[in-house]
Amino acid sequence: MTSVFDDLVGQEHIIDNLRSAVAASRKSPQTQEMTHAWLFTGPPGSGRSSAALAFAQALICPENGCGTCSDCNATRTSAHPDVEVIRTEGLSIKVEEIRELLTRVAWAPSLGGWRVVVMEDADRLTEPAANALLKAIEEPGTRTVWLLCAPTLHDVLTTIRSRCRHLQLHTPSTEAVTQVLMNRDKISPDMAQFVANVSQGHIGRARYLATNENARSNRKVIMQIPVQLGSLASALQAAQTLVDIATEEAKTTSESRDEAEIEKLQEAYGKGATGRGMASGGSKAVKELEKEQKSRATRMVRDSIDGALLDLTTFYRDVMMAQAGNIQSLINTDLHDVITTFAANSPADSSVQKISAIMNARVSLAQNAAPLATCEALMCHLARR
Ligand SMILES: [Zn+2]
What we know:
The chain has 385 residues and is of the alpha/beta class.
């Protein structure tokens, strides 16, 4: 029989824990065997939120997560009355959002089982928000199970993480990702191998690259940046290119979604065909939604720049490999010639410094630094020999 846990690539080490928790959850709530708060950590792309969502399905589904029944489907598409998936579009989760959430989940689960809350970015909780959440997690006898996700344990406040059962996800191997892309997504072996390699175990990114030609050509442009950096002008140009590509990517993914959301909201407020006659509060709600969409777009641009910067680190990592004579372990196999030439012409320690400059820029971006200025400073650094 199929199980939602089959989809968790490279996470065999946690699946037994999840299965026994599901078994415990079937017993009477008075036995107190069920852990009510879980924390999934793992590097980007390891599938933290997919693991949490699979666990949610297994808790809700009468067949322990068959993946095909109506409960499993509704859970996956965020349409199940007893499952809340909190995806943050902004840079932080504020205390007001947590209070609203707590009001929503205060009711007993509609179907008599468990209520499950999946919080994809527990690392974005502000301190007051985390404290509000803490009270809910500690409440005795609750029928709510909290599944929090964060990159590492250190990204979550101590008070929260000390009350959660922790599961650490691993980055799946390139082979595992290649197999999944071939078997499940029917991607050709060559393409699967290539995208698995350049995505470094990030299965979502690998799948996106394999199925999206535009993304592949954007990646090509980004990977040309190191060889084009010769002058201040070229560095500034490269920074602009990076930001433009990220903005474009964010725009194509969000545009249709934004419009649909606004339309739905206007309908809810009774907007007629003429665009007039919305019930009171309607235009205020639309304005608020537009504000939310704007902050989501900002975050998507940042995430996209971050992905491009990660790609760039693999370039310099490959240069170091080439300089060490380890040419068979290149990540960017498509850039073999470019990398060997670059390696022959650059000082031995410069790649390490460049990788650390990129990492610093990623930290600044995550802390809300202005994207273009951050990229400009970085590119000027990378342009030095
Ligand atoms: Zn099911």
